[in-house]
Specification:
Layout lengths: L16 H15 L11 E6 L5 H12 L3 E5 L13 H8 L5 E6 L4 H8 L4 E6 L5 H15 L6 E5 L6 H11 L4 E5 L8 H10 L3 E4 L11 E4 L10 H7 L7 H6 L5 E3 L20 H6 L1 H13 L4
Parallel strand pairs: 1-2, 1-3, 3-4, 5-6, 5-8, 6-7, 8-9
The protein binds N-carbamoyl-L-aspartate.
């Protein structure tokens, strides 16, 4: 097992399959209550320059559950960025107050820049339309919990594959486990060429379609995403694709009835509420798994767990 101690978590490109397995296994130990209190005496700072509910609050809850302390800000309005301070100076300051820094920022590459400046490990909690690695860790944990394995799964990714950072990170992770991917989106929201080239290089099969039913009936997971309104430059372009998908109980049945439905949340209208009550719906369980997974990750990078 590689050591996580002191390591920044910025992109799936920096990670191996065994790193991902280690995070999933460690999160399992945390969830089963086999380890606890491992962040005692450690302090984590959160710097969020973009809105968040689950990511920020689950990091906060994770730290408190493991005996650590956490502080930070939830928007740039409440930081000195609103007085004109540079991002770099904010990082150089806050790194002196904590043992790990969790950053969400609208600009792609912001977390990488922070990790180059920082003397403490940085965790990327989402950088623009690029990557969201900790979401992928909890997605993998949830998949493993549901079907007992990560190898050889058929996964559908549906919705905004162009701007959705969660699906960019997840696709890279799945490529390390011999998955088959079906990419379901309108033509204008297909996965960017750069990510598709990486999937091709990893040798995993993937297909691009416009409707989930084109994936057949052997899909293990359908990972649904919101159209990322805030990333569109042209509001009319957004309106043209808004509401283009709605997963219903009928969709689940058309897909063979066994497919598990996942979503990083927040949901707008792309999954009908009637799906929530089906045994197929994993998305709230998935959100709650953010706690043990983020506990495990923080434990590993601060050296409280190995
Ligand atoms: C996602 C994000 O911020 O990228 N949310 C999350 O962290 N669970 C997905 C989204 O905003 O659509």
């Amino acid at each position: 097992m590689g050591s996580f101690k002191g390591r920044s978590i910025i992109s799936l490109r920096d990670m191996s399959a065994s790193d991902l397995v280690q995070i999933v296994e460690t999160a399992g130990r945390v969830k089963r209550g086999e380890v606890g209190g491992f962040l005692a005496g450690r302090t984590v700072a959160v710097m969020f320059f973009e809105p968040s509910t689950r990511t920020r609050l689950s990091f906060e809850s994770a730290v408190l559950h493991s005996g650590g302390s956490i502080f930070g800000f939830a928007s740039s309005d409440s930081s000195s960025q609103s007085k004109g301070e540079s991002f770099a100076d904010t990082v150089r300051t806050v790194m002196g107050y904590c043992d790990a820094l969790v950053i969400r920022h609208p600009v792609e590459g912001a977390a990488r820049l922070a990790s180059e400046l920082s003397t403490v490990p940085v965790i990327n909690a989402g950088d623009g339309a690029n990557q969201h690695p900790t979401q992928t860790f909890l997605d993998l944990f949830t998949m493993h919990e549901a079907v007992g394995r990560l190898e050889g799964l058929h996964v559908g990714l549906l919705g905004d594959l162009r701007y959705g950072r969660t699906v960019h990170s997840l696709a890279m992770a799945m490529s390390m486990f011999g998955s088959r991917l079906t990419l379901v989106s309108p033509p204008s929201l297909r996965m960017p060429e750069q990510f598709k080239a990486e999937l091709s290089n990893s040798g995993i099969p993937f297909r691009e379609v416009q409707q989930p039913e084109e994936a057949g009936t052997d899909m293990d997971f359908l990972y649904v995403t919101r159209i990322q309104r805030e990333r569109f430059v042209d509001p009319q372009e957004y309106e043209a694709v808004a509401h283009c998908y709605r997963v219903t109980a009928e969709t689940v049945s058309n897909l063979g009835g066994k497919v598990k439905i996942m979503h990083p949340l927040p949901r707008v209208d792309e999954i009908a509420e009637e799906v929530d009550g089906l045994p197929n719906a994993l998305y709230f369980k998935q959100a709650h798994n953010g706690i043990p997974v983020r506990q495990a990750l923080l434990g590993l990078i601060t050296g409280g767990l190995d």
